[in-house]
Design brief:
alpha+beta; homodimer; Mth169, Chain: A; three-stranded antiparallel β-sheet
């Protein structure tokens, strides 16, 4: 059965996020002062799996093997059904 | 008051997404066949605003002026409070 899975990948607490710094800087130049800015990458993937558990397991493997770098990233997986 | 706003930016339907294609290709090489893959960039921004409406307006301006390209992107804004 086809499942849609939402994988959210963000930098671990304390990791430098140069993209976030650049955006905060650009926003400040436009007159928008910000207190904090975090970037998250979300992949919405549709693929075949036996059941919801299997979909979640497959998504975990995709994160571990390709999408996330365990040293710097944390990720969360949401099986949308 | 400080508000946390979640801004999600994705490519409009039908726009080419080379990053998504590259990831699908890499996943296939690892043995994971996918039916579809979409990428979304989420910015979680904390900033001062008068009230919830003002926070939403400011976030819209940030999208229009910097974060999103209206020709190719669609965006959604969620004021988390």
């Amino acid at each position: 059965m086809l499942y849609t899975v939402k994988i959210s990948i963000s930098l671990k607490e304390g990791m430098l996020d140069p993209e976030a710094s650049a955006i905060r800087h650009a926003l400040l130049n436009l007159g928008y002062e910000t207190d904090d800015l975090r970037t998250t990458r979300v992949y919405t993937i549709r693929f075949n799996a036996a059941d919801k558990n299997n979909a979640s397991e497959k998504a975990t493997k995709m994160c571990e093997r390709l999408l996330a770098n365990p040293v710097i990233h944390s990720y969360s997986i949401e099986v949308m059904g």
